[in-house]
Fold this sequence. Notes:
The protein is an alpha/beta fold. It is built from 14 helices and 17 strands. It has 2 domains: 1-41, no CATH class; 47-233 and 262-476, Alkaline Phosphatase, subunit A. Helices cover 33% and strands 14% of the residues. The strands form 5 sheets. Strands 1, 4, 5, 6, 7, 8, 11, 12 and 15 form a 9-stranded mixed beta sheet that branches. Strands 2-3 form a two-stranded antiparallel sheet. Strands 9-10 form a two-stranded antiparallel sheet. A hairpin with a 2-residue loop joins β16 and β17. The radius of gyration is 24 Å and the shape is globular. The chain starts with 14 loop residues before the first helix and ends in a 15-residue tail after the last strand.
Amino acid sequence: MNRCTGFDSPLGVDRRQFLSTFGMGLGSIALADLTRAAEPKADPLVSLAHHAPKAKRVIFLFQSGGPSQIDLFDHKPQLIKQHGEQLPDSVRKGQRLTGMSGNQASLPLVGSPFEFKQHGESGAWVSDLLPYTAKVADELCFVKSMYTEAINHGPGVTFMQSGSQLAGRPSIGSWLDYGLGSLNDDLPSFVVMVTKNKGGQPLVSRLWGSGFLPGKHDGVRLRPDKNAVLYLNSPGGVARTDRRKLLDRLRELHEFQLEQTGDPALETRIAQYEMAFNMQKSIPGVTDLSDEPESTFKLYGEDARKPGTFAAHCLLARRLAERDVRFIQLYHPGWDQHDNLPGAIRTQCRETDQPSAALVQDLKARGLLEDTLVIWGGEFGRTNYCQGKLTATNFGRDHHPRCFTMWMAGGGVKPGISHGVTDDFSYNVVDGGVHIHDFHATLLHLLGIDHERLTYKYQGRHFRLTDVHGHVVKDILA
């Protein structure tokens, strides 16, 4: 299969490659003329999709490190009642633990020390750590039954971002750019921002890379300094008109070489040069917040004035969404709380709660939430037992892949619902399980893509984001 067309080539080439070589390229010229004549005036949103999409773009607020579902969203009174008791064998059922707590002689249960209340007409349970998120609970779809096979950060983050625990596969944004293309000419289709000075688990560029897809589908990282995109600015003394002339001549040389070799890497190079030229003008307009009113900073919080903060990135995400960037990925590290969880999680929530809720409110006020899918979550959850020593004021939680919580808003998901149920100990999913592949299948479905048909042939095999698994979670669709 090739892209969203469902084209299957036994020769390992797609239609464009075949027709460009057939009859010295006359085939591609003829096809282009026939296609332009035959194509109806289609909505550009749906012209490349398999079915009518509900979402036009995605903003993924990725909380790197594994937020504790028990202390944020998955209210478990039973854990509070049995605080300090040993994790029952009937709950663990011999399941694998990490090397960090698997050798502990004692696995004492830890109830959340934070108060939970129900909010909104939906009655969603939210911890008092997230007062702003609680106010928009009726806009959110909580998926409390997420699960994964990954038990460590590297494979876990890679799995969430690419559908495989093994490095080298294309990331979600790259698949979307490959399958649906861009919605604009002046900005990348896939933009990434990482909160600065957070430490935590390393976040490497392959997480937003295109893997075996052409390099033009890579994510572009925006940085919180005067060079928002590396190597974008022209050297001193080079005018924009001179830059344009240089690129035109360079394009001619690349196109000449392309005719001789048919090397698709040259097409990627041409596209990247053109995008870089366009971004020289468009990126400053996106990152300059001087045109935002005071009400915006009141909504997102004062941190939104500070470049590189999560709040500033949430505001930039809204500005990018307004300019039709298709996939916007925010990374906020620091959720890996093996110890000192009570103090560390307060810091994380203070940094992320207000801007996350503000983004949902802002998008809705501007009429963008309806076709923008907002996602909040990490690579896995945390254990119900204490890692290390449990004291009256301190504890930690280890990695837990068996169940965790994410939330979504807008873009075709039902607002004000909670999907899935975990057991009384927040250890195992008991109903409505959503695997990573199911999550990806549902995301693609909301964008108009059949996840089984968006494929790319590489080394003799047709790959896809959902590998050979995945089911659309229909219960959460609006």
